[in-house]
UniProtKB/TrEMBL annotation:
Source organism: Vicia faba
Transmembrane spans: 6-27
Keywords: Membrane, Transmembrane, Transmembrane helix
Lineage top rank: taxon: Eukaryota
Pfam families assigned: Glyco_transf_90
Boundaries of every Glycosyl transferase CAP10 domain copy: 166-412
Protein known as: Glycosyl transferase CAP10 domain-containing protein
Length: 462
């Protein structure tokens, strides 16, 4: 009897002890790492319990939050965790377009990137971003359109939260305009400064980086990519392809480029029908009306959709591809980080920029005569963005690009005197309306519990 009581008592207190550990908010939530022995038994290391780590937006001074939390315990712990697990590889490979990272960085393969090269790029960039020991610092050199700079920096801060300890120390320059800034012809004898941009083209040397709209475009009420993709997917299911309007559709600012102005002439008239339906948008009016006429999820009603560049590449590309309609690309000059892997006649139908109206009419007539083939092209384009441009891969692309870029630096990255530390708190807390909502909606809530995808080797090493 005494033995039974002793066994019962020991069991009871052991279970109670486990309950205390699990319940204790300091152990389980505040102190988010645990102490464990390494496999070599030579030292004790900190391993992050990623499933228990939850990030919160702590506006400790309300809308007046200007500084970042000073607690460095998680940063140090994550760095130790990274040192322990950096050799771990993912079970899946990255999408094919990740190979372009090597191509974009090729101009610096032989020389590396020096401090002098970096300084030569200050007058053609808006931001200098430094990442030092897992924290981000920003120095602003020029104005950016709307809040592109804010959401670009926000995206980088979220990357640091998703993969803590994995982003190496670095400095980079970012150009937030539409067009590219590094003309190949100007740097035939001189190594160019490294400039990150939202797009590239065959005659430029800009390093292509995901654009701000993946975290939301508040000025046009476009939600973060994950949410708007879900909305588009649900909406596109409402109308079967065969029941959609059998014409090519485009909606947007039709005055930004020659191609768009030409596209306007393809609209239906009493004399001619080019199978095209073009709707010009006055964004001032749309702002006053709350963007009720420009919701992306309401624009999947036609069998065919048109992608046409504005000043340069357009963020509309991914939204148009997501609609399950056969997408027509009016021959683009620019590309973003993923579009170089799109295949004509598989993911989209190419349209010449020299005979826009005629080519669109032919493509629509062909699609209506071969509906299953046209539907398949639309499905493949949509499948591409759903499977290969999900936010997980957007972050993985950012991570791999920054890792490969940092390998080229031939100087020690520093925090510059005029740089300001940025974090989720001092970026989001002072904002209001959609600006804050979209940041909260796109905020990384916890570290990734899986490693990033495995990178491809460069094209020339296949």
């Amino acid at each position: 009897m005494v033995k039974r009581w002793a066994v019962f008592s020991i069991t009871f207190f052991f279970i109670y002890f486990l309950f205390l550990i699990d319940w204790n908010p300091y152990i389980n939530h505040h102190d988010t790492y645990k102490i464990t022995k390494s496999t070599s038994h030579s030292k004790t290391i900190r391993i992050i319990n990623r499933h228990q780590t939850k990030y919160k937006l702590n506006c400790f001074n309300g809308s007046h939050t200007k500084t970042c939390p000073k607690d460095d315990s998680l940063v140090h712990a994550f760095h130790q965790d990274h040192q322990h697990s950096s050799s771990s590889s993912s079970s899946f490979t990255c999408p094919e377009y990740f190979r372009w990272i090597h191509e974009d960085l090729k101009p610096w393969n032989n020389t590396g990137i020096t401090r002098e090269m970096m300084e030569r790029g200050l007058n053609i960039s808006q931001l200098r971003i430094s990442i030092i020991k897992g924290k981000a610092y920003v120095e602003v050199y020029g104005g950016s359109y709307q809040t592109r700079d804010l959401y670009t920096v926000w995206g980088i801060v979220q990357l640091l939260r998703l993969y803590p300890g994995r982003v190496p120390d670095l400095e980079l320059l970012f150009e937030t305009g539409d067009a590219t800034v590094l003309d190949k012809q100007q740097f035939r004898r001189l190594t160019p400064p490294p400039i990150f941009s939202y797009c590239g083209q065959k005659d430029s040397l800009d390093i292509v980086f995901p654009d701000w709209s993946y975290w939301g475009w508040a000025e046009t009420a476009i939600k973060p990519w994950e949410k708007v993709l879900k909305d588009i997917k649900e909406s596109s299911k409402k109308i079967k392809w065969k029941d959609r309007i059998p014409y090519a559709f485009w909606k947007g600012n039709s005055y930004l480029s020659y191609a768009r102005r030409t596209l306007r002439t393809c609209n239906v008239t009493d004399e001619q029908d080019w199978n095209t339906r073009v709707y010009s948008v006055n964004w001032n009016n749309e702002t006053l009306q709350g963007f009720k006429n420009t919701k992306l999820e309401d624009q999947c009603t036609h069998r065919y959709k048109i992608y046409v560049e504005g000043i340069s590449w357009s963020v509309s590309e991914k939204y148009i591809l997501a609609c399950d309609s056969m997408t027509m690309f009016i021959k683009p000059t620019y590309y973003d980080f993923f579009s170089r892997s799109l295949v004509p006649y598989k993911h989209f139908w190419p349209i010449s920029n020299k005979s826009i109206c005629e080519d669109i009419k032919y493509a629509v007539d062909w699609g209506n005569a071969h509906p299953e083939k046209a539907k398949a092209i639309g499905r493949e384009g949509t499948r591409f963005v759903e499977e290969n441009v999900k936010m997980m891969f957007v972050y993985d692309y950012m991570l791999h690009l920054l890792i490969e870029y940092a390998k080229l630096l031939r100087f020690e990255p520093t925090i510059h005197p005029d740089a300001v530390e940025v974090c989720s708190e001092n970026l989001a807390c002072p904002k209001g309306g959609l600006w804050k909502k979209f940041m909260v909606d796109s905020m990384v809530k916890s570290p990734s519990h899986t490693p990033p995808c495995t990178m491809f080797s460069p094209y020339d090493k296949q």
